[in-house]
């Protein structure tokens, strides 16, 4: 059991590095992961020895190593999250009559891993493999709202971190903080025309056993459609909670 705190810290560092577009200096890791400098230094050295982290001495920065890539590739091959989510998303489409999708955070983007299209509905921009700016999408906002504030600040340190598609959405760290606060108070995320004009989405986060967001579930429908948004949001939240139970498992991993 004495190794559990160290494992937790190491995974926290890996998760932070995975959200960065480029290798980062030690001080960024210390602040984002809320670690003592000496602890972070020793953890990074161990992770370098195991191949999960690389050190760029000329730049005084740290990035993900080959072993981290191998773990990510294994996830892609096994697709456990997609396997767990496919049936609940299909049932969400049946319940709402609108298309649904599952997305995961990748840096400042969301990556769509499942799209369940409603019969007779046109294809959406949220096709499998598509990346979109997280701060503009309902799925991304649901995930960001469930992240620690320090991680959101690391992802969006200044105005340069914000991209624009249609002249809408937050364009500064302060605007994003307000939006995410409203999302938490509401219990679900929304966007209207910020990804695709004429379409709106509602989303909720899927959490792991540490209450960390691992994905976002969303339903997209026409902005001018006669739709019970409250009912759709309730269905989305219920599906996210169902997946949270599936992902967390409710039991410790076997030894």
TrEMBL record:
Checking Pfam families in the record gives:
HTH_IclR, IclR_C
Entry's Gene Ontology molecular function annotations: DNA binding; DNA-binding transcription factor activity
Instruction: Indicate yes or no for the key word DNA-binding.
Output: yes
Query: Which UniProt keywords are listed?
Result: DNA-binding, Glycerol metabolism, Transcription, Transcription regulation
**One GO term of the biological process aspect:** negative regulation of DNA-templated transcription
Annotated HTH iclR-type domain residues: 4-66
Domain IclR-ED, first and last residues per copy: 67-249
Q: What does this protein do?
A: May be an activator protein for the gylABX operon.
Q: By its UniProt entry, which PANTHER family does this protein fall under? A: HELIX-TURN-HELIX TRANSCRIPTIONAL REGULATOR, ICLR FAMILY, TRANSCRIPTIONAL REGULATORY PROTEIN
Q: How is this protein named in the record? A: Glycerol operon regulatory protein
Organism of provenance: Nocardioides alpinus
